[in-house]
Aminotransferase class III-fold pyridoxal phosphate-dependent enzyme (Roseitalea porphyridii), 462 residues
Amino acid sequence: MDQQANPNYALAELDKQTMLHPVTSIAALEADGPQMFGKASGVRIAGPLGHDVIDFGAGLWCVNVGYGRQELADAAASAMRDLSYYHLFGGASNEPAVRLADEILTLFHEQAGAGHLSKVFFGTSGSDANDTAYKLVRYYNNLRGKPEKKKFLARAGAYHGLTYAAGGLTGIPAYHKAFDLPQEGVHHLTCPHHFRFADAGETEDNFCDRLIAELERTIEHEGAETIAAMIAEPIMGTGGVLIPPRRYLERVQALLRKNDILFIADEVITGFGRLGSWFGTGHYGLRPDIVTLAKGVTSAYFPLSATVISEDIFETLRDASAEHGPVMHGFTYSGHPVGCSVALENLALMKRENIVANAAEMGDHLLRRLREKAGDHPFVGDIRGEGLMAAVEFVADKAERRFFRLPQGAHRVVARHCLQQGVAMRPLPFIEVVSFSPPLSINPAEIDEGVDAFVRGLEAAT
Ligand code: PLP
């Protein structure tokens, strides 16, 4: 088609003239133009090549109930008419925020071992939820007379967002090396991805022992009295859908507890059903001191995040309150009544439609199909997943487990071909992986259609 006759041409030009895109190469954008996406419904979105595509990313791992749900649009419209906005500062409150805090705590309390989580702080993004956790941990330690406990542990390959503190915790250098994000006082441990980072012949259990020994050594070397917290995603998402070795997370948690180091579970992706359980922490039987949430809480129909803290942390804050004054942290949009109303309807809809159980079932189906259809491909090194969080990792040589050298980006080429074939896939930045995280409402026929398109894309690319 003549480029200028393309109805999106003018819009694409305007985009280039007016926007600075997040996590985008300016040179590539200027050369290729933006990819304009249009209307979406269910698991399909109008793609940039003039046809609908299945969204195997659910946006950025977030559109859990699928696109275009009337119930959520109605909830937003009705909330906007009732109370379009009010804040929570200085003790102000609103009904949707209270009800959502109660609903989130109830969901946690229904899972074993999470009865200690007791208060919810609202924000608007996964990054600010992690910044809130970072600040509250420091506040808590200052209040309980341990101001020297300041350091944070995280892992290489982790993604915790891109604001100042959260970006410093993120363990993918491409995201922070150009911005001088704070690395002092942040210690990134070895990435817990056996397939890629195990030594030759090292079993998963031995790999896990090595990681735990490293954590133990680090605590000893730095001094437990200087370490405030460790942050971890139950399954690392942007880092490559990295499923930790068996018992890794519970062993990490036990070591942290023994050393009076808080455990922050970053459930921005894994919260609200992605793993086929309501939360990743319940899925793995964990008992974190703080959980951070965003994305799926509203299925991304409204920007909303939550930082959930334990009763123990809250009690320390409360006991110091008379002496220290207000908790001087918060945002204009904390507890936004429209966002909280959308979240309440989203969670009700997930329950009505058994969406979490569907994620577990469809996750099994997706993995089976991927293994059947792509398992023998010479560049497919590993196919893994838990619930509807799955990945294909590419290797340059399967027998020798030789990896492509980034930024060669075989996975980027595959993703481009997939789009032509009818499925939107996400190539990840840390290793050669494309991720699969469709809406949790997806059905078997849609999975099959998406996997077939992925396989055609893979074949066209190789
Ligand atoms: N934490 C995790 C695990 C994430 O995957 C993300 C975003 O993808 C974030 C935090 C940051 O969330 P946001 O982009 O909403 O700031």
Remarks:
- The chain is about 40% helix and 15% strand.
